[in-house]
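Q: Hi! First time doing this. I have a protein sequence and I read that you can turn it into a structure. Is that right? Here it is:
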Amino acid sequence: DEVNLSTISGQLLGMDITLPGEGTTTLEVTSCFPMPSGMANEEETSQEEMDTYVTEMLRCMRDVNVDNNTVGWYQSTFMNSWLDPDGPTVATQFQFQDTVPKSVCLVYDPVRTLSGSVHLKAYRLTDKFMQKYRAHQESGMHGFSEADLKPKFDHISQQVVEDGITIEEIFEEVPIRIHNSALVNAMLYDWACEGTMGGKMHCDFERLDLSTRPYLEKSMELLVDGIENMRQDQERHDYRKRDAERKRREFKRNQRGPEEISKEELHKMYPDPSKLDGLLIANQVSSYCDSIAKFTGQSFTKLYLLKGLQEGNGVQQTPE
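A: Yes, that's right. Below is the predicted 3D structure, encoded as structure tokens:
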């Protein structure tokens, strides 16, 4: 039920294993603990209380001989809501990744998992995005300007000095491999051998159910809303950019004295508006498009399969 959905988040614990000689890095997630829902939602909660809770949980994990190394965090999502520009995904992942470079954000969609496929993804901010985001954090800038997103071209050498950032260069997906314990493997083997629930493991026509229809409709609604948000963000950006240019012209016109302020200092005083929100909105719209393409592809495959079954039954029932 979409109304009863609430976002759950927590920290991932495990180990960062790098094999010598091969240079292959494996991030093993062996345990986790949730953040209290009340503490995560209340704005009055101080950072000191959050740090105290995390420190106490890590101490308890260490006392029971469980891995207590933080390797990332997890959160639940509904229809790619984790990409919301107003959400904490980018800022939180930057904090984790700045401390532990190999840390990941594990995203789990319980609603889509109910349709039959485990929707579990791991993401990490790209090195290029981390570099620019860190530079803006250290300089105290408000965000990404339009100049940061465009490639910088040197007209003298006729070469691209610095590449820009596109929506594909914000997050990178990390492949996941799930390992089950011995007890889980024994239970699955018992199911496969028609044990306690073996009767429910047989293939039936429920697998051909077009259950993606409600998700497809919701994705289309969210896609329309995302495009509208992109239009509104572009209008706000154009207005703020014109306002910054006007302030720079007025300051330069009213400037007095022999020393003339440089163009770089003038842009620091009245910077261009940030394009980070627009970049995140475009990334979210792109994810909606990918989801729609995936849903429609699965639906067409099931329709063609049903058509083949119906035609086959028609041939068998045709009298000689």
